[in-house]
Design a protein that fits this description.
Tumour Suppressor Smad4; five-stranded mixed sheet; 19% helix; elongated
């Protein structure tokens, strides 16, 4: 799936009035993607645009290697003069991510630190030239849904243990 920026304003206008709210009440922008056919899966790893004109964009990451640059043959196309033709790769390996700069002119930055290669984690701010994005791995969302289930199981096991202990002591 290729993600490209086109200057058509309507392409980046979401449904008016749509407001997604995370559990921590942090506003999530009304994201658009290039397919337009399927709802956006917020659990899917992606780079989230922070600077205009990419600030309402969500660029899904591929398993393995995702190429990023200005050329149309990249997985994520950032049509901005400060971005090199092939600027960088985001490499996924068993749920871990790292950024590799591919000899770009203006450099790649992770949390405002210039890097040639760097591990990435949820929420890291990544800059390619003048375009800033944020890494969303989807892991924190999955963990937040899984945590309550674990506590329910642990609580139920504790309750069963207490009932069994009470039954044993009253015999």
């Amino acid at each position: 799936m290729e993600n490209t920026y086109q200057s058509t304003k309507s392409k980046y206008s979401g449904t008016q009035g749509t407001l997604l709210v995370a559990k921590n009440d942090e506003r999530i922008p009304d994201f658009t993607d290039d397919t337009g056919s399927a709802p956006i899966n917020l659990d899917q790893p992606a780079l989230i645009g922070l600077t205009p004109p990419f600030s309402t964009r969500r660029f899904p990451l591929r398993p393995g290697k995702t190429s990023i640059g200005r050329r149309d043959d990249n997985d994520i196309v950032l049509a901005d003069g400060s971005v090199s033709s092939l600027h960088a790769w985001v490499i996924e390996d068993n749920g871990s991510y790292r950024l590799m700069n591919i000899l770009s002119t203006n450099g790649s930055f992770v949390n405002n630190e210039r890097v040639t290669e760097a591990p990435l984690k949820e929420g890291d701010r990544i800059r390619f030239g003048g375009v800033e994005l944020q890494l969303h791995t989807g892991i924190s969302t999955r963990k937040s849904h899984a945590a309550p289930r674990i506590w329910v199981v642990v609580g139920m096991m504790g309750l069963i243990g207490l009932v069994a202990l009470g039954w044993f002591l009253t015999r």
